[in-house]
Amino acid sequence: MSIFDILLRIVLAFTAVITFVTLNALFLVWLERKVSAVIQNRMGPTEVGPFGLLQTFADALKLLGKEMITPKSVDQYVFLLAPIIAFLPAPLLIAAIPIAEGVGVSDLNVGALYLLAISNIALLGILMAGWSSNNKYSLLGALRAVAQNISYEIPMLLAVLAVVLMAGSLKLSEIVKAQETIPYILLQPVAFLIYFICSIAESNRTPFDLPEAESELVAGYHTEFTGMRFALFFLAEYTQVFVLAAIVTLFFLGGWNGPLLHPIVWFMLKTYLVVFVVMWLRWTYPRLRSDQLMNFNWRVLLPLAIVNLLVSTVLFRGTVG
Amino acid sequence: MSESLQSTSHEEAGADTDHIPPIVQFLPLQKALDLARANSLWPLTFGIACCAIEMMAASASRYDADRFGAGVFRNSPRQADLMIVAGTVNLKMAPIIKRLYDQMPSPKWVIALGSCAICGGPFDQDDNYAVLQGVEKIVPVDIFVPGCPPRPEALLHAILELQERIKSGSTNATRA
Amino acid sequence: MPLEPEAVEPVAEQKAVYPELIERLRKAGATEVSSLDYSKSGMDVDAQVTPQSLCAVASILKHGHFSLETLVGVDRQPEFEVLYLFKADNEGPRVKLRAKTDRETATLPTLTNVYGGADWYEREVFDMFGVNFIDHPHLRPLLLPHFTKFHPLRKDFHGAPIVIPEDTVEIPELDVQAATKLGQSTGLRSDFFLNMGPQHPSTHGVLRILLHVEGETILGGRCHLGYSHRGTEKLAEKKQYVQFLPYTDRMDYLSPLNYNWGFARLLETATGIESTPRAEVLRVIMCELSRIASHLVWLGTYLLDLGAITPFLYCFEDRERILTIFERATGQRMTTSYIVAGGVRNDVYSTFSLEISELMRDMRKRLVEYDKLVIGNEIFLMRTDKVGIISPELAIEYGVSGPCLRGSGVDYDARRDEPYCELYKELEWKVPFETGGDCLSRSRVRMAELEQSVNLVEQALLKLEDGPVRSKVPKIFKVPAGEYYSVTEGPRGIIGWYLIADGSQIPYRLKVRVPSFANLQTVEQLMPGTRVADVVSILGSLDVIIPEIDR
Ligand code: SF4
Fold first, then answer.
1. A22, C128, C197, C406: which one has the fewest Cβ atoms less than 10 Å from its Cβ?
2. Between A41, A43, A65, which is nearest B37 by CB?
C-alpha cells in the first residue's frame, strides 16, 4: 500500500466516523424526544421537518450560531479544552466498533480492552469542565461523575471479563463469532445485567444521572458551557449511549448474527433496541442519591460480579480446560 | 473555595461584542441561522409566581410546546435562548433577573408573560413598595402576553409570533 | 374545635370556658385575661401581656402543647401591638396574647427561646413594622431586600419609589454567619457555601437557600425569602373587602378556591351572613377538586425533583381536566374568585355533576396507578424513607400544619376539627395520618388525601340540590368594628385570616396566616446532616408555594 492509499484511508475513515457521530447523535436526540413524548402522552417535535426530524438539526445549527461565553473567573485553557477532551473518545470509540464481519474502521485484537479504556477519557473532560468552571454546581457534578465512574468501572470490567473468558479473545469480531449459536445473554445473564447497569451509570443516564442532576445541580458539570461547547458534551453523551448499546450488542446479543437480514441491519437493530431501552429507563425512573449509588455498587454489584466471574470460570473454563 | 460566596458567575466577558456590526454579511447563512434559531427556542426554567404554572402547563401534555421546538427547558441560563418572565417581579428579584439575562448567550429573547411581568399587574397600586412596574424596565422584552394568568395557548401563540419575528429579523436581539 | 356549637350559642357570656388556663395565664403575669366567643371572633382566650411576662406566659402555653400559629403585627397608632396566636391540639382552645410597645422604642423580647417557630414571624414583624426583638438570634429583613429602609405596614408609610440599587445580589455578611453557626459544632474543615436559588429548578418558585456544605454533606443552611413579595397585606388596607377577593387567588395559585373560601368565611364570621345550602355543597366540591389539583401538582413536581420526569406530565394531564371544569364553572382556570361571602358567585353549568362524576371515576383508576408506579417505586422509597424527619414536637413548636403535620402523627385537620362547614361532618371520610414524619409519610398522607377527596366529591355531588347559590349580601359591604379570626384547611394546611375591622368598607389590618410559611421554616432544622440531594427531597415533600409565603 502506498502512502497515498494510507492517507486516503485515514481521511475517509475520519470523515465517515465524524459524520456518523454527528448524525447518530442528532438522530438519537430526536429519538429521545420522540420516545419521551410517546411515554408522556405528547407529540414531541412535529413542526420542523417531517415528524420533526429536522428539529435536532435546527438545534445544532442554533447552537453553532450562539455567542460563546467564557466567564471571567474560569480557568481559561482548561475551560476551552474540556469539551474537546470530553468529545474526543466519541470518534475513537466508533472507529473501533465493527458493524459486521470486516465492516468497520478497524478491528483491533484488543478491541474490548480498547473500548473500555478509551471511553474513560471522557471522564477527564468532565472533570476538567467541572474544575475549570469555577462554579460549585459544576464542581459537585464533576466530583460525582468521577466517583461514580471509577467505582462502576470495576464491576463492569469483571462482567466483561466473564465474557472474554468464554470467548477466549479480546477481539470484538472473535467475541461475536463465539456467539454464533447462542448469544451470551443466555449464558451470562448476570454478567449482562451487571454490565448493562454499570454502563448506564458510566454514561450518566437516569437513574444514575447524578452528575447532571437537573433538579439538584442545575445542569451539573456543563452548567457554564454555551453554544458549541455545550453541544460537544451533548454529542459525547449521545455517542456514549450508542457505544454502550453497541458493546452490549457485541458482547451479549450476538452482534451481527441473525437470520435472514443483512448483518449490518441486525447489528443496528439490536443496538437501537438497547438504546431505546436506555431511553425508556430514563423517562421512567427517579434518580438515586450519591451515597445510595455507591452502596449499590460496592455492596451489591461488585460482590455479584466477582461471584459471577468465579462461577463462570468453574463452569465454562473448568470443563473446557 | 470558601471565600467566594457566589456560585453564579460574574460579569460577562462576551457582552460587549454585541454592538459590533458584522464585517461581512452572509445573507443566506444568516437566513438559515435565523430559521434554525426560530425553530429551536430553549426556554430558561424560571418561574416566579402564578403564571409559571401556566407556563408549565404549556409544556405539559395537552399543550406541548415541544412540538414547536420550544420544549427543551434548560436550567442553566448559559444554554437557554428564551427567557419567559412568568410572574411578579419585585425589588428583590429584579437584579437577579437582570443577571440571568446577562448570563444568557446572545441572541436571546424575552417574553413577558402575564400582566405582572408587563406592568406590575394587580399589584402596582397605591402604596406599592415592592413590585416592579414591568420587566421591561430591566430587560428588553420581545413579546408581551396579556392575561392574569394568560392561558397556555396564549404562550404558544407568543412563541409562534416570536418565531415569525426571528425569521424576519425584527426582534430586539442582536444577531451574533 | 373545642366548643360544641349547641353549648356556645345560647350563652352570651363565656367567662367560664377555660378557667384553669385563664388562671394559669394570670399567675404567669398576663393582665386582662378574658375569654371570647369563638363563633364570633374565632378566638377563645385573649390575654394582654407585658414585655416582661411574655416569655413566662408563652412557656405555660408551650407546656400545654400549644402551637404557635402566627404573629400579627398591628400599628395601633401611635403604639404597636403584636398579637401571638396559639392553637392547642384538637380539643383545646385558641389563645391570643397581646403585647404592646410604643412607637419610639419599638422593642419586645424575643419568643424564639420558647418557640423556635417564632423566628421568621418575628423577622417579618421586624420587616413590616420595625419592631426590634431583643436577643433574636439573627434579626434582619426576611421579606424585604436588605437595602430597604422603610417599614411598609406602618400606617404612616405611603409607598416608595421602586429603585434598584446597583449590585444587590451580594449575600449580607450576617447571613453567612448565620448559616455557618449551624455547622460549627462538627468542626469540619473542607467546607464551602452553596447557593441554591432563587433561580433553581427545584426551589419551586423563587426561594433561595444558602447551604453550608462539606463535600455533599450539609452542615447548615438558611432560607432567604421575599423574592416574590408583592405587598398584598399593605394592599389589603387600601382595598374594599369585595375588591380584595381576587388577591386571595393569587396567594396560592394552586388552590385559589381554598383561599377564596377562607376569605369568604372570614367575612361571614365577621358579618354573620350565612351561605346557602347549595352553595355549601358547591364549595365543598370545588375545594376538594382544587385540593386534588394541587396535590397532583405536588406529586408531579416532587417526582421531577427526584429525577423522574414523566409522572409530572401525567399529573398535569389529570389536572387539566379539573381546570377545564373550573373554567366552565368559574370562568377562569386558575384565578377563580369564585367563592364569595354569602355563597358562590354564580351557579354551575348543567353538565357539572355528570362531568365531575366521570372525572372522579377516572381519577380512582389513576390513583391506583400512581400508587403502584410511583409511591411503590424502589428508588422513590430509598429517596424518601427516613429522610427529613419532622418529629411531632418540632411540628407543634413550629406550627406545622396540613399533610406535613399529619405525616408526623398529629391527627388534626381543620375540616374535621373546626366547625367551618357542616357538610364535612355529614359526609363519610377519614383524616389520613402517618407516624413516620419523613418525606415518605408526608407523601403517603397526600396520596391518601387524594383518595379521600375523591370520596368527598362523589358524596357531595349526591347532596347537590336546587336552590339559590348566594344569600342576600348588602350592596355596600361593611364589616362591624372588631377583631376576627377564621381558619380553613387548604391543601397545604391551615389558612388563617386575622382581620381588624374599623367598621368601614376597608380592612384596618388583614393578616394571612399561610401554611407554607410555618412548614418551610422547619427546613432549616431538617437540613443539617443530610445531603444536597436530600434538600431537594425535603423541600419537595413540604410542598411549599413561595408567593404564598412571601405574599
Ligand atoms: S399576572 Fe396574574 S397570574 Fe400572573 S403572576 Fe401576576 S398575578 Fe399571578
1. A22
2. A65
